Sequence to fold (714 residues):
Amino acid sequence: MNYFFQWRIIEKYSDYFYRGFFNTLSISAISISLALIFGIILAILKRSEIKGLSWLSGGYINLIRSTPLLVQVYFVYFGLPYININISGYWCGVIALVLNSGAYISEIVRAGLESIPNGQVEAAQSLGIDKRQTYIYIILPQALRKIIPPLIGQFTYLIKDSSILAAIGIYELTNTANVVHARTFKPIEPFVVALLGYIIIVTILMISANILKKKFSLSGY
Amino acid sequence: MESGIFDRIIMQLVTGLYWTLCLSMAASILSLIVGFVAGLIKSIHVPIITYVVNFYTYIVRGVPFLLLLFIIYYVLPFFNIRLSPFIAGVLSLVIHEGAYMTEIIRSGIESVEKGQHEAAHSLGLNYFQKMRYIILPQAIKITLPPLAGQFVLLIKSTALISLIGLTDLTRVGRQLTQRGENPFLIFFIVGIFYFVICYPIINISDRLERSV
Amino acid sequence: MNKIRVVLMSFLIMVLMVMSVACSSPSNEQVTSSKAVDEKRILDKIQSRGKIIIGINASAPPFTFRDNNGELTGMTVELGRLIGERMGVEVEFIDMDWAGLIPSLLSKRIDLIGDRMSNTLERAKSVAFTDSYLKTGTVAYVRNTSSLSSADDVRGKDLKVGVLLGSIQEEVATDQLPKAEIVPLQTNPDIKSALLSNRVEVALDDEIIAYEQVQQAPDKLKILPGFLVVDTYSFAVRHEDNDLRLWVNLFFEKIKREGEFAKIYKKWLGKEWNPEAQKQL
Fold:
């Protein structure tokens, strides 16, 4: 192998890597929170009795599922300035991720809501509990418990998808490795660091998912 | 003038579409083979090889596809393996999607209820006969929807190969915007191309899922 | 528990792999070229291949860009085609991100970087530059509404500065504008777009490229007078391919003497080629 290792470039660019690591996490965390809200709204719209709303949100979800995330990112990043909305690249990335993940989350939420047996709702009604309270005290807690595992799965996907923001120059972990590679002409060192970074993040997530799964799957709903 | 430019946009995008389709087809077939072999290995629990397969799926699924692509494209040359963007793209896709297909196929095989295995055994079928006539056909029916979903993910992932220079649909779109074309228009058209390819597959997959 | 075992084993194997690779570095310090094919001179290889592979970054008019049909064109593209013609081989251009040019050269994907590359001492540690063919400089350009009035104004301020990733403007910005926040972008038009969309306040680029970019929105952008740094452009090859470097140097000498270069210069840069002013001594 014709390669001269220079691991000290990692030291030299260490604050780049810290920033990249931190950015990946912060972008993912912000995006998943916003996407959760967006996803819940979408799910409610899709289940709504108004055919138009249901149709629109369904169409939106299908659109997101049938187009690559990269194209969606480009659409937001290049499209917004074209109509004179000037937001920083970071927030364009977050918006694209939220728009994307929101669609997938809405499907998860919808599946969770639909899995609550109708019997529960009827029982609640016969007990005289009104619709809003049914939702808040009976449906939502059970649904939330059901959707937490797939939600963590979605969070994992989001963390990996955040790497796509490298295409618009955001300094997350993958792009950081790329930039260090561009400056030092040495690919192995930075990419190995990025590799380890992602594996660490995903492993921590997986372990917490396992813990949460045990905590939440109490009485097999 | 207007429609002339429009034609040129579409024509150039179509040359990109050609690469997207080539990538998708080559990678789909190869990753399916990889997934099938590895999934089978995992479900049989072959001693050491299963560990290797587990390691492979764990690492590959924990790492972003883009990073894997960069590693294959930028690192391998130092091992004297210089791949064109197309081949590097296919290889990365096969490695990445193959891992997911492994899991799908494995769970498909394992989800065929035990009763079937026992019934086959009591009928005197050996392992290969059992797999070929009873287990695998049922497993295939179960795995079809998630596999179709995975194919769609594969097609969407081909867009990332544009970032190592392959002139696929996405990259041509990007080049057109650099030339000053309206990005809304360009990426809208690009989106339509992908939609036309992916949505039918998603639709079929959803229907299959509901009928299973 | 099974999953935890997989995780731990994966970590162990990963760590072992990384350590074994890291610990083998001392022995890799020697350049190994034991394969017979690597010992062939690059010019021989190009001749037997029948084609020379030139790396470019095609998004910077007037040097290297694509016309309305998507065809490659520009000053350096024309020079590259001329190289192929004079060498008697075909030319294959590989269009890539600017930051990928040197890595591609080093990993032998391309034979020659045939684009507007500044021959800096830092880069010269990794690649071998041909003699320079053009003298230019880095300028700053801003929106018309900006309060900055000259290149000197840009120094010492904490502004967002857009540069091309992997370019010397990135180096210049890091050295001369310590308080600035440097925003590396993928292509030259992206820098202009970032400026127009308020993502950056100042854009740094080569003077000639900046001029072309500003021309696309002359009512919104202006170039600040003054160079931040003077620059000379060369082509580049790998250190071990000295024969190719000597050939390209001779090529430039010939076309300058025969008038081809002056024609190409005038065609793409719109001014007469003045060898005296361009003297890089």
User: Anything to note?
Assistant: Chain A has nine helices and no strands. The mean pLDDT of chain A is 85.
